[in-house]
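Input record (one chain):
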Amino acid sequence: MSCWVLLLVLGSIGGASGRPPLPALPVKDGCYLVTPEVEVFRVEGEAVILHFPFFARALEVRSIAPPAAGFLIRRENRTEEPSPQDGPGPRDPDQVQQDPDRVQQHRHQLWLLPARVSDSGEYTCTYRNETFCVRGSVTLHMLASPSVDVELLSYPVSAAPGDPLRLSCPSLGVFNRTDRPVQWFKDSNGTALGGAADGDRLLIPAVRTAHAGVYTCRLRVTVSQRQFTVSRVILLHVEGSDPETAATPPTDPPATADPGPPSSSVHTPVLQPPLILSPLNGSVWESPHGSGLEMSCVVLTDCRLADSTQVTWLVNGQSLETSYLDRKALQGWRRVSVRPDGCRLELRLMVSQISEEDQDVEVACVAHSAAGRREVVTRLRLEDSTFTWAVVGAAAACCFLAVVSVFLFVLFRPERKKRRSDYILARQSSSF
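The corresponding structure, as predicted from the sequence alone:
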């Protein structure tokens, strides 16, 4: 009996001390499928490096692939029809090997040097061993020029008039940069912006409505001992009026013989600024070290302003694209739902891994429209596991002492001696 109790206690201790189980991955064609990567939109003629951060993270947290593991990247389908001058794209692993100068695989990265419109399509990265098969995917959209679809190609950034703003080139961490500085261009102007750069960032001391537009950052990078041009497009939205023109001068009313009573005027409903329902101002997002975190911002606004209402996340006062979280955070799509009290907008922010550098980082949700601007400030914090481990340790110690006490009692308890006199008296009593 004591052995069964000991096994039960050890099993409960092991389940309590271990980390919570990782979410199960869906299975298709014998492989576990990781969440698809964010779709990539790039311009033809530039260097493109396809990588799979969600896929790599899934292998890391599950300790599946060794450091020297091999991966297979292949092309599943096309998303655009190739032009005659493009030539064949990497449709399968054999074609990837047939064009080593332009298409190269480095572990779970695929280098397109340079990329063509015919490279558009879905790419999968697979790791397989005797036990596991894990697969990730990413969709690449190649555009012939930036003017084809600015909305898809650009990174949206929102700002309010009067706010300082620093724009930086996003998604460049996988490249080896040269010593040449980043060049910035606005709209279709071919002349680089000068005098407004703060290192590699474009500095706007005070945003005005005239600053809204399409900004392009361009720089030279070194890939496979060759230099290529890489560019990113940022679409800046400025909502509101400039401080100087925010107040309109009063106008004289038309002269009339009898203006009539004030109640005869037509009442125009006043639009209210958007209301942030969640999170609450000053709230804290907690997550264990090494775990992911998903944050959601829910905004209530007038349905007439739902399309023009901008909802964004700021990290330490900076946009997500210009903050340090850009390399491990992803902003989701905006969701709109119609409710009796108005329209609700939801924007999520997902962080792949929380570490010590994220402690007490300020994360703000900003909502602004033509009616006004609202902001809610929250913080990131690592969960303190000291109390949890103390409780688990105390419970384990109590269970262990109880099992040892029961075991020692059973082992050393004195044997009861049978009293023969009582037995004889019982026999005598039964004879009557």
